[in-house]
């Protein structure tokens, strides 16, 4: 589940819009050792000071500004039962996350809360409309102690990231509430592997040291080295992104020299467990490797000085052990996304050596269920910002007859992807709009499903501006470019080769383009080239085609350098504007838009 970053343009969308108007039995991975009383350690029975204390590490990742419970399938977590059946559990929402964390902290005098990045960016309208100030406020109320930066923290560039950290009203839109100035994050954002090109100095703090009653734990935060490949050029302008392993090892040595022997790495990169169920035990006998993906090699290369890894980016749930370079198992965790889970890890701290007793580390993911009381302060925060957003958020854009799945669909071709690609083609096909013949949409840019069920005051089937925004939150400008047929074929092959070979990214295509994807093959061969047709005609390698796509893809983003070779560029309306225009043109209350048929991509597996 790749989190695909693109440039957020809230100022543009605000102006445009204004113009129109845990379970306790969760997954546990434990290494052999005796348990410790959390926070109290083990004494000798004679009143002497205990040798160890247990530090509670609560963590989550990839919140993406989801203050309200995420809708549709994106708001569920899967639980596998002993008989093999899988249950979908509705989860998430910051009102419930706050209650879960506050309940978990009770009885734990040594408790620290950390995040693995992508707290903001690609956010629903409630947060995204206000440049994610509401989310930072919520994280402050959650008592977050530290977070790594993720790729989405760079959606609006380094200057805006600095404002989220340090505070101050938006440079264009100013303060959103009269007499209130945005205070910024109470917690440090860590970006150890991000430096300024001109000076070579870190953009933000590389690490922080959490201290309590003589206990010291160092936190090093990094984002994935490949951030420039998945963020628009303006978002990372003037920055360099360095190797995750080399950076963490460098600062682990620095912390060690300072006497900090207990270290946790917060890494915005992740993996894929063998099961999508949050309670899958990837360390159980017969589980095999349990987890795959980039985080495995990263974990194997990080110095044994680091005691645990909190990860993210892939939106997966796992609590696994991966051996460090010395061959000793080390905990690696991820809590899915959107605040649906949190991870509770016990770090047994040796007061004499100042280090973590690795053999005593245990961890579990817990569901942020919606059957618990809401945190009143979070409800108040949501109500306050919803009141400011309401004039824009509640405006109807169209109607649907049933759920149209996009983010929650596991199939290569997604019904909502077809709708979005068709909207882009229709809006940019006129000669004076670019003359597009085909449109491509990157799957990670589809941030949610369109859900039929009513929410708030809307009626069933109504698609509001807020819901449309949640699906397409980046407000990327659309481009129409010239590409040869050969370049089109290469772009389709790049879905399953090169940077995307290990984790394919299947473009959503507009009506008229069809081809076969043969998953029994490997690499570029998985795209059957002689099956690629546009409106029934084979692609001519020598012919020039007019191709529509968002500016992120047109810049070669997401591992599609062939799409970045386009010429004769015309800049059109935003993706959100085209999406809303399509909904208005193709639906009414009496004749709502139905989920489109699939079949543009024929899958062989």
What does this structure look like?
The chain has 605 residues and is α/β, with parallel strands linked by helices. It contains 13 helices and 30 strands. Helix 4 (133-141) runs antiparallel to helix 8 and helix 9 packs across helix 13 (575-586). The longest helix has 18 residues, at 376-393. The protein is globular, with a radius of gyration of 24 Å. The model is unreliable at 1-40 (pLDDT under 50).
Helix-strand blueprint:
Elements (H helix, E strand, L loop, with lengths): L9 H11 L7 E3 L21 E9 L15 E5 L5 E5 L3 H12 L5 E5 L9 H4 L4 H9 L4 E3 L8 H10 L22 E2 L3 E3 L10 E6 L2 E9 L15 E3 L2 H14 L5 E6 L3 E2 L17 E2 L1 H8 L6 E4 L5 E7 L5 E7 L5 E10 L11 E6 L8 H18 L2 E4 L15 H14 L9 E4 L20 E3 H7 L5 E8 H9 L14 E2 L3 E6 L8 E8 L2 E2 L5 E7 H4 L12 E8 H12 L14 E4 L1
Parallel strand pairs: 2-5, 5-6, 6-7, 10-12, 12-15, 15-17, 21-28, 25-30
Antiparallel strand pairs: 1-19, 2-18, 3-4, 8-11, 9-10, 13-14, 16-17, 18-19, 20-22, 21-24, 23-28, 23-29, 25-26, 26-27
Q: Quote the beta fraction.
A: 25-35%
Secondary-structure-derived class: alpha/beta
Give the biggest sheet.
7 strands, mixed
Overall average residue pLDDT: 91
Low-pLDDT segments: 1-40
Secondary structure tally, helices: 13
Number of beta-strand segments: 30
Global shape:
globular
Distance between the termini: 20 Å
Helix share, percent: 10-25%
The whole-angstrom Rg is 24 Å
Keywords, please?
about 600 residues; alpha/beta; seven-stranded mixed sheet; six-stranded mixed sheet; 13 helices; 30 strands; about 20% helix; disordered N terminus
């Amino acid at each position: 589940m790749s989190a695909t970053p693109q440039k957020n343009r809230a100022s543009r969308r605000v102006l445009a819009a204004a113009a129109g108007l845990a379970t306790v039995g969760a997954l546990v991975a434990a290494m052999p050792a005796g348990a410790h009383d959390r926070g109290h350690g083990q004494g000798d029975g004679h009143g002497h000071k205990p040798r160890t204390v247990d530090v509670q590490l609560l963590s989550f990742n990839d919140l993406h500004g989801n203050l309200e419970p995420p809708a549709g399938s994106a708001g569920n977590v899967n639980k596998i039962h002993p008989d093999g059946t899988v249950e979908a559990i509705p989860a998430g929402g910051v009102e419930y996350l706050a209650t879960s964390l506050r309940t978990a902290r009770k009885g734990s005098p040594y408790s620290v809360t950390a995040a693995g990045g992508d707290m903001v960016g690609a956010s629903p309208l409630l947060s995204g409309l206000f440049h994610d100030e509401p989310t930072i406020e919520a994280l402050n109320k959650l008592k977050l102690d530290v977070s790594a930066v993720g790729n989405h923290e760079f959606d609006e560039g380094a200057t805006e990231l600095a404002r989220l950290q340090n505070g101050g009203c938006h440079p264009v839109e100013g303060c959103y509430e009269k007499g209130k100035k945005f205070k910024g994050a109470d917690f440090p954002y860590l970006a150890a592997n991000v430096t300024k090109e001109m000076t070579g100095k870190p953009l933000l703090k590389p690490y922080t040291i959490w201290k309590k009653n003589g206990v010291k734990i160092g936190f090093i935060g990094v984002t994935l080295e490949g951030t420039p490949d998945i963020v628009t050029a303006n978002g990372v302008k003037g920055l360099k992104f360095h190797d995750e392993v080399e950076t963490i090892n460098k600062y682990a040595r620095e912390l060690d020299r300072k006497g900090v022997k207990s270290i946790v790495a917060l890494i915005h990169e992740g993996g894929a467990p063998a099961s999508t169920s949050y309670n899958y035990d990837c360390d159980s006998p017969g589980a095999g490797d349990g987890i795959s993906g980039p985080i495995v090699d990263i974990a194997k290369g990080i110095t044994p000085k680091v005691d645990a890894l909190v990860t993210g980016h892939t939106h997966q749930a796992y609590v696994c052990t991966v051996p460090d370079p010395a061959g000793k198992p080390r905990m690696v965790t991820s809590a899915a996304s959107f605040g649906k889970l949190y991870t509770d890890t016990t770090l047994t701290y040796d007061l004499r050596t100042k280090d973590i007793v690795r053999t005593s580390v245990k961890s579990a993911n817990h569901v942020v269920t919606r059957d618990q009381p809401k945190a009143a302060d979070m409800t108040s925060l949501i109500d306050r910002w919803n009141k400011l957003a309401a004039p824009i958020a509640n405006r109807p854009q169209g109607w649907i007859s049933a759920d149209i799945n996009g983010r929650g669909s596991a199939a290569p071709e997604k019904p909502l992807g077809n709708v979005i690609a068709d909207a882009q083609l229709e809006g940019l096909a006129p000669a004076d709009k670019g003359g597009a013949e085909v449109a491509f949409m990157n799957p990670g840019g589809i941030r949610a499903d369109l859900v039929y069920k009513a929410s708030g005051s809307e009626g069933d089937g109504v698609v509001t501006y807020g819901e449309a925004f949640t699906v397409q939150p980046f407000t990327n400008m659309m481009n129409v470019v010239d590409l040869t047929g050969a370049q089109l074929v290469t772009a389709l092959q790049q879905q399953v080769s090169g940077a995307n070979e290990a984790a394919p990214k299947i473009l959503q295509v507009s009506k008229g383009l069809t081809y076969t994807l043969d998953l029994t093959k490997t690499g570029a061969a998985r795209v059957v080239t002689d099956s690629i047709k546009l409106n029934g005609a084979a692609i001519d390698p020598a012919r020039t085609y007019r191709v529509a796509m968002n500016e992120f893809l047109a810049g070669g983003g997401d591992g599609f350098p062939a799409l970045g070779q386009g010429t004769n560029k015309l800049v059109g309306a935003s993706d959100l504007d085209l999406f809303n225009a399509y909904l208005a043109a193709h639906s009414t209350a009496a004749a709502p838009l139905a989920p489109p048929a699939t079949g543009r991509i024929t899958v062989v597996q």
